[in-house]
Structures are given as C-alpha cells and as structure tokens.
Design a protein that fits this description.
- Chain A: InterPro entries: DUF3325.
- Chain A: It comes from Sphingomonas naasensis.
- Chain A: This is DUF3325 domain-containing protein.
- Chain A: Keywords: Membrane, Transmembrane, Transmembrane helix.
- The structure holds 2 protein chains of 2 kinds.
- Chain A starts with a helix and ends with a helix.
- Chain A is built from 4 helices and no strands.
- Chain A is globular.
- Chain A is mostly helical.
- In chain A, helix 1 (about 1-15) runs antiparallel to helix 2 and helix 1 runs antiparallel to helix 4.
- Chain A has helices at about 1-15, 30-55, 60-85, 85-105.
- Chain A has one domain.
- Chain B is an alpha+beta fold.
- In chain B, about 60% of the residues lie in helices and about 10% in strands.
- Chain B is built from 19 helices and 7 strands.
- Chain B has helices at about 1-20, 25-35, 40-45, 55-70, 120-130, 135-160, 175-190, 190-205, 205-210, 210-215, 220-230, 245-255, 315-325, 330-365, 370-395, 405-425, 430-455, 460-485, 490-499, and strands spanning about 75-80, 90-95, 100-105, 265-270, 275-280, 295-300, 305-310.
- In chain B, a hairpin with a 2-residue loop joins strand 2 (about 90-95) and strand 3 (about 100-105).
- The two termini of chain B are about 40 Å apart.
- The chains are: A mainly alpha, B alpha+beta.
Chain lengths: ~110, ~500
C-alpha cells in the first residue's frame, strides 16, 4: 500500500517536473523555477517506494509487484494527461491517503 | 562523437524495426497466447461448466489413478496435475492405443468430464509450440524470443528521450499517435518485458542452445534429466504385470515429507507393471522456483525409492528463472499485473507492426510489399483474436458426444483464424479493420452471453471479461466507422502545396 502510493506520487511528480506536462500542478505554484527540485523529489519518492517494497521477507514478490505497478501508475498519469488532468490529481490525493493509511494502519 | 552516437542510434532503430517486423506476427500470437495462459485454470473451468465437483488434491489424484487403472491399462505413463484453489479437475496426459491424450478428470469419480476440451491448455501449448510439430514450433518460438530480446534492447538504445516521452500520448495525430502509443506501451512496462522475454528464452534454451548439454552428456539426455531431478526414479518396465498399490497413502506420505506443502504434479510410469514408479512433485504455487522437491515410490509396494529437495544454487537459479516465466506462484493481484504486462507487450507489438506501415505511408505512396504487409497486419492480428474467440464458441456449441471434440474445437479456432487472415488480405485495410474488429466484438459479446446462459454464477468472471472486451472493441469500431464515413483528409504534401 505504502510503496504503491509513493510510486504513484513519484511518477506524478516526475511528469509534473517536465515542461510539457506542467499542467499537472496549478500554475501559481511557480513550477518553472522548481522543476529541478521537483524532479529530484520525484526520483527520491520512486527510490523510496522501491526500498520499501524490497524491505520485506516477501521482497521477491513485492519487487515483481513494484514492476507491475510502474505500468499501472504510469498508465494512470499518461491517460490523465491525455484525457483529463483532474483524474491524475485525484489519484495523487488517493495515493497520499494510501501512504497515510499504510503508516498509521495495523 | 555525437555523429557516431547518432549513427549508432539509427542503426539500432533500423534493427529494431526489422527484427520486430520479420517475426512480429508470430510474436503477437505468442504474447497473446502467453498472456491468456496466465488464466489457464480459470479458462479451463469456464470451458467445462459441467465440472463443478471439488475434492482435496490427494483424493482427486487417487480417484484419477483409479479410473486410469481401469481405462488406460496399457499406457506407458500417466502424467497428472492435481487440482488446487484455481482448477478443480485433474489434468491428465497419457498415451492410449498409440495416441497421446490430454483429458480433464473429474476430481470425485476420476472419469473424464463430459465436455471434452483442451481448455486453457490450448493457449498454453500455442504460446511455445505454435501448433507446429516438435521441435519446429519450439524452435520458431525460441527464435522469436531471441528476436524479441534484440528488438527490446535496440528499442531502448534507439529511443532518444525515454523518460521525456514516458507520459506522452497525443491522440488523433496519425503517425505521431501510433509512435506515442507504441513507446508508452513499451516503456511503461519495460522491466516486465525484459524479464518475461529473457526468462522465456531460458525456458527453451535446452532446445535452442543444446551444445553445453551435448558436450557434457552426449546423446544421454536421460542422464541429464536424472541429474536435474534426482528424486525422479527411472526404471525400465519389467514386463510382468502387477497391480498398482493404493496411491493415496503415497501422496499423503509425500505431503508429510514436503512439510505439509500440497502436492502438484504426479507421474505414474509403467502403470500395471512390476516396475511401476509413482513420482510426486511438490506444488509450485507457494514459491517462485519451479520443481522445488520430488519423491518417488515403488508403484507396487509403495516404498520410497528416491527423494530430493532442491538446494543446488545453479539449479535453484534456473528454477527461479523458469518459475518467473510460468508465474504459477503469482497470487491474485500479481497475476493481474502479469496479465497487464503481457497485454501491453502484445499491444506494443501490434502497434509496432501498424506503425511500420503508417510511417511509410506518410512519407510516400506505399510499395507493394508494404501494401501487402498492411493487409497482413489486419488479417493476422484480427485472425489470431477471432480464432481465440471462435475456440470459445466451439466449446459451447459443439455437441458433447462428438468424437474427437477437443481436436474439433482447435480445428475451428485455426480455420477461423485462417478465414480472417484471407479476409484481411482480400479487403481494403480501411474496411478490413472495422470488419474484423466488429466481428471480434460480436464474438466476444456472444461468447460472454453463452457463458452466462450455460454456466453457474461462480464462473461468470470470464463471461464478464468477454462482455467488457466486446464493449471496448465496439467503441473502437464505432470510431473507425466514423473515420471511414468522414471525407478523406488531403495528403500532407498536397495540403502544404495548397497552403
């Protein structure tokens, strides 16, 4: 749950850091100046999701799941960018909720 | 330096295109069949709606051996797969009267289930045997896997902006859209594509690269298999008849020695002979590695002949690579992620084949070869899909008592694919695509409705998937028909000249 959420947030941030997909985040956030930092944060989130996925006795199954989830999360960002940015933003909120639920849950 | 790099990239792009093109249609068939094979037990259950009984693996295999002892006495071996949470029948492969048969046996009575069908086994075998005689199908599949690996690696090198294009898809822009789609499908699931291609190549390595085996074992292939699975006792028939001891106690003993893990495959070699051997393999479902342990019993006395738990690092590594490809270990969500990865690879191949033609058409009028390829694309891609759906229709509509029913189902699938291929080649591509995809949408909807009508609620999952696929396809076909009715757009060159 946590690694899936972090992975989505990482891919969302990676897309938002690209000039072509800057519409993912509101314009008044001044993304243009922070693109490099956003990109770094994106890669750190992706790396963190991978580390968390591997930090388990089931690491082999979770690594395979992580690989599969890259396609799912990336696919959601791609389709949202093409057909409606609000879906990607809603999914980002859901991903945050997933991470929080994973952290506070049993 | 950059000129050299650019030149290398162009060479890689050229190689990517040609390797993908030469065996693209075979790869499409392999990937589609492999992706469907992930749900082999579920497809089998859908195709045998009458087989609703369930039993514990030990009881089911014991019932199966009981039926085979009466009805396949002269067989040289029975190769059984025990049911698990996904499949409820015993999958049996055995020879009888000079013929090699695959049958699903009822877990309670042990007799073949009423609806004789290959079920999901058809897609599984099609994936690496391509309905060709041994060894040609496997050799072609192995070559195609090698070509796929080359296409993947050259594709990565040729792709200049792999991360920048990661999230880019620009619809309704002709060649640009096909390229974006092909890139997105390929890149989003790239680690999976590399893994599944490499592991697939390894599963057939003994056939495509036999030289290390020949160097070490010469013609003694049995010696190699014996060393690979030391728990599989190998005995020649004694020539004197002797009844098979009850199998259930052997299976229970095997389960006990496997530490309580369920049984998977069960081989009974030389049944009814004094040298009968019963070999029990631990189920592959609980770990990635294939064939984790096996134990052989004397078929007449029930005494243990050989026992082995795999701990050799090299063999374990091979088994993990093999198991990664088979995905028998994959629990529900992971299996769907495998399915998604396989579907994306299948679509990446299809879009690559279409892109080859679209790219050339936008530059100049198509050559004869490319015009043929354009028609072959429609026929082959549509044909493979329509053949698969025709197989499901045949399963529901053929009479149960038809002799050789399973083979007739397969013939109908192959003939449907052939007819679609011919139709695709004969029709204009602009007509062939909506016609074939429309037929496919109707076929999926019909198969789904037949499924609802003839099976219990427990098997409606696949019928729902078929109806959902039909809905998605009908949206694509509607769009294609609209494009067909719209006035033709001016050629880019002409439009530019007019401007």
């Amino acid at each position: 749950m946590i690694f899936g959420g972090l992975l989505y947030l990482g891919l969302f941030a990676l897309a938002a850091s690209m000039g072509r997909h800057a519409q993912l985040l509101p314009a008044h956030w001044g993304l243009a100046k922070r693109a490099a930092r956003l990109r770094l944060a994106a890669w750190l989130l992706i790396l963190a999701s991978l580390v968390i996925a591997l930090w388990s006795p089931d690491w082999a199954l979770r690594l395979l799941s992580w690989i599969g989830l890259v396609a799912v999360a990336g696919g959601i960002v791609l389709l949202s960018l093409t057909y409606g940015v609000r879906w990607a933003r809603s999914a980002a909120l859901l991903a945050i909720a997933l991470v929080v639920a994973g952290l506070v849950g049993p | 330096m950059s000129a050299v790099r650019e030149g290398a990239r162009q060479v890689m792009a050229w190689l990517h295109g040609w390797t993908g093109l030469l065996l693209g249609h075979v790869l499409f068939l392999m990937c589609l069949a492999g992706t469907l094979s992930l749900f082999k037990p579920e497809i089998g259950r859908w195709m045998r709606p009458e087989a609703v009984a369930t039993a514990a693996p030990v009881d089911a295999v014991a019932a199966a051996t009981g039926w085979l002892a009466k009805n396949a006495k002269d067989s040289t071996g029975w190769y059984l797969t025990a049911p698990d949470g996904r499949a409820n029948t015993v999958e049996a492969a055995y020879d009888s009267g000079g013929e090699f048969l695959y049958r699903a046996l009822d877990p309670v009575t042990g007799a073949p289930v009423a609806r004789e069908t290959m079920g999901g086994e058809f897609f599984y075998r099609l994936h690496f045997e391509l309905q060709l005689p041994f060894p040609w199908g496997r050799l072609l599949a192995s070559l195609a896997a090698l070509v796929m690996l080359v296409a993947l690696i050259t594709g990565i090198i040729a792709h200049r902006r792999i991360f920048r294009d990661f999230f880019t898809f620009r619809p309704a822009k002709g060649q640009r859209s096909w390229l974006d789609g092909h890139n997105a499908l390929g890149v989003l699931s790239l680690p999976f594509h590399l893994m599944i291609t490499f592991t697939g190549l390894v599963t057939l390595a003994s056939l495509s690269m036999p030289w290390p085996i020949t160097a070490n074992y010469g013609d003694e292939l049995m010696a190699m298999y014996q060393e690979l699975t030391p728990g599989l006792a190998n005995r020649s028939p004694a020539g004197t008849r002797a009844p098979l001891a009850p199998v259930a106690p052997m299976l229970r003993e095997a389960e006990r020695r496997f530490g309580g893990a369920p049984i998977g495959r069960v081989y009974v070699v030389n049944p009814g002979d004094a040298a009968a051997v019963v070999t029990v393999f631990r189920s592959d479902a609980a770990q990635i590695g294939f064939t984790p342990a096996e134990i052989s019993f004397d078929g007449v006395t029930g005494k243990v002949l050989a026992e082995w738990t795999e701990n050799r690092p090299a063999v374990k590594t091979y088994n993990v690579v093999y198991g990664l490809h088979m995905a028998r270990f994959a629990p529900g969500v992971l299996r769907w992620l495998y399915f998604l990865g396989g579907a994306m690879l299948t679509l990446a191949i299809a879009t690559g084949l279409v892109l080859w033609v679209v790219k050339r058409r936008e530059r100049a009028p198509l050559s004869l070869g490319n015009r043929l390829l354009e028609r072959l694309n429609a026929g082959a891609i549509g044909g493979v899909l329509l053949g698969s759906v025709a197989y499901l229709w045949a399963n529901r509509l053929l009479p149960l008592e038809l002799p050789g029913r399973a083979e007739v189902e397969v013939s109908i699938a192959l003939w449907s694919a052939t007819v679609s291929l011919v139709a695709g080649a004969a029709l204009r591509p602009a007509i062939a695509w909506p016609a074939l995809l429309g037929a496919l949408a109707l076929g999926c909807a019909g198969a789904g409705l037949l499924g609802f009508a003839t099976s219990g609620v427990g098997q409606w999952g696949m019928s729902l998937m078929l109806v959902a696929t039909a809905t998605a396809l009908s949206l694509i076909v509607r769009r294609q028909i609209r494009a067909l009715r719209a006035p033709p757009a001016p050629r880019r060159g002409r439009a530019r000249a007019a401007a």
